[in-house]
Amino acid sequence: MPKRSDERLIAYLDGAVDVTERREVEAWLETDPVARDQLAALANSASLARLAFDDVMHEPVPDRLLAAARGETVSSNNPTKIVPFMVWRGSARRGGLRGSWAGLPVAASLFGLLLGGSAAYLGVSKFMPGGLGGRPPAVEMAAADNAWLENAAGYFKLSASAGDGLIDVPATSDPHEALQKIGQSVPQGVRLPDLKPWGLNFRGARLVVAEGRPAAELIFTTDNKAIGPLSLIIGSSKEPDAAPTLARRQDVNLLYWRHQGRAYVLVGQADAGYLWGIANDVAWQLDAV
Amino acid sequence: MNNRFSDQLIAVLPRLRRFARGLTGSVVEADDLVQAACERALARQHQFQEGTRFDSWMFRIVQTIWIDQIRSRDVRKEDGEVAEDRLGSDEPVRRIEARLALDEVRRAVDRLPADQRTVLLLVTVDGLSYKEAAEVVRVPVGTIMSRLARARIALQSHLEASGAMRRSTNDAEAQ
């Protein structure tokens, strides 16, 4: 008579039993409804344990850890340091019988709810070196870009400190209405990315100038202090496409790129990891890379 | 600096962070732990044997540093710290409920004894085989099996007592 224990059920669930043991466990399960229930409960709790730590896998890796992995130190006084956001592309593997967990529907359901929160990360490969963008981030702007980056940093600081007073078109119940109004002044129009999965709420938009042309500053706010308020500036550009580049001006971080006649800059005090993640999401939603 | 070594290290960072998050139960402590592990790995990269698993080697470094830390000081954290900054003000109620259920799971994992928690994170969360986990923790496979069984049963009991399992089931039925 094989040993009947939770340990054995768990090894069975984990695919850590040999063929003989597997058959014994399956024979046991066929005749013992209590064991079947226990198996389902164990599978369910294991799925929940995995889900409970899944968020971490989708978080941007902090700069300091990327720097530590490279044997560097991160200095806040180093305005031109480029730390590209690396993406984890999945667990090493999933073993044995884990694909047939009895509790999987429950966990999958829960995962479905959480997916909305992490779906934004699914498109991150667009900006990755070797991804669809295919190019490593440039190290720094050309000198000609400096003025407009300075302006972008200034626009952000102004909108972040001035509250709603500077907003030309506040987000009403229909934020797209705000975009429509401001889009009339901006060549090619402007679309609004949904950044709610990042906890960012669209507050309104205003007209600014980028590269000497009218541009829209989309202003987002959040309760998440790790990200803080953030602006996405979208304008038209006659310059050639440019790879995403991180810069720092006036104590704020900027992530800047050009694609098919548009210039984009994401401005905020969030660290580079967040900016890369959010910019990837923007690029994905707006087909902007 | 060996670029390939750094590339391997960067690739495994998300898993190390997840492992460390589960061990410490704290966002900040976990990243401190991973940073210390990176620094130690770089200092001792000559000790890594090509052809062996880099991720297992890094897991072992993280685990060793963590054990050293909990031996040298009583590392405890406040309940709810894990959930910091995770609840946006406008998240739908159902998503918040799901997150609360997962917070409960994290708290249940946090209540496990350190040796059980380690094995649960390596095998159940990260998907290492029993043999690989045994190599990381440096104990026999049989010990991994018994620790894992105790951890899984305890986790299940915690979750049933807290209602997290019931909430997740109800949630599934509501779909």
Structure, briefly:
Chain A is 38% helix and 18% strand.
Tags for this model:
heterodimer, A: 289 residues, alpha+beta, Phosphorylase Kinase, domain 1, seven-stranded antiparallel β-sheet, B: 175 residues, mainly alpha, Rna Polymerase Sigma Factor, Chain: A, Arc Repressor Mutant, subunit A
Describe the 3D structure:
By secondary structure, chain A is of the alpha+beta class. Chain A has two domains: 6-57 and 96-115, no CATH class; 143-286, Phosphorylase Kinase, domain 1 (2-Layer Sandwich), CATH 3.30.200. Helices cover 38% and strands 18% of the residues of chain A. Chain A has helices spanning 6-13, 19-31, 33-52, 54-58, 63-69, 104-118, 146-162, 175-183, 272-286, and strands at 169-170, 201-210, 213-221, 230-236, 242-249, 252-259, 262-268. In chain A, strands 1-2-3-4-7-6-5 form a seven-stranded antiparallel β-sheet, sandwiched between helices. In chain A, helix 2 crosses helix 3. The radius of gyration of chain A is 24 Å and the shape is elongated. The termini of chain A are far apart. With 175 residues, chain B is mainly α. Chain B has two domains: 1-78, RNA polymerase sigma factor, region 2, helix turn helix motif (Rna Polymerase Sigma Factor, Chain: A, Orthogonal Bundle), CATH 1.10.1740.10; 88-175, Arc Repressor Mutant, subunit A (Orthogonal Bundle). Chain B is built from eight helices and no strands. In chain B, helix 3 (54-72) crosses helix 6 (130-137). The radius of gyration of chain B is 18 Å and the shape is globular. The model of chain B is unreliable at 75-92 (pLDDT under 50). Chains A and B meet through helix 1, helix 3, helix 4, helix 5 and helix 6 of A and helix 1, helix 2, helix 4, helix 5 and helix 7 of B.
| Secondary-structure element pattern of chain A, one letter each | HHHHHHHEHEEEEEEH
Computed CA radius of gyration of chain B, to the nearest angstrom: 18 Å
- Second CATH tier, the architecture of the largest domain in chain A: 2-Layer Sandwich
Q: CATH superfamily of the largest domain in chain B, called what?
A: Winged helix-like DNA-binding domain superfamily/Winged helix DNA-binding domain
**Relative helix content of chain B:** over 70%
Number of helices of chain A: 9
Binned strand content of chain B: under 5%
How many domains, in number, for the residues of chain A? 2
Element-level helix/strand string of chain B: HHHHHHHH
In DSSP terms (H or I, runs of 4 or more residues), the helix count of chain B works out at: 8
**Main sheet makeup of chain A:** 7 strands, antiparallel
Envelope shape of chain A? elongated
Classification by helices and strands of chain B:
mainly alpha
Arithmetic mean of pLDDT of chain B: 81
Described by strand count, sense and barrel closure, the largest sheet of chain B is: none
List how many beta strands of chain A DSSP finds.
7
- Largest interchain contact: A-B, 57 and 62 residues
pLDDT averaged residue by residue of chain A: 71
Rg measurement of chain A, Å: 24 Å
CATH topology category name of the largest domain in chain A: Phosphorylase Kinase, domain 1
CATH superfamily of the largest domain in chain A: MucB/RseB, C-terminal domain
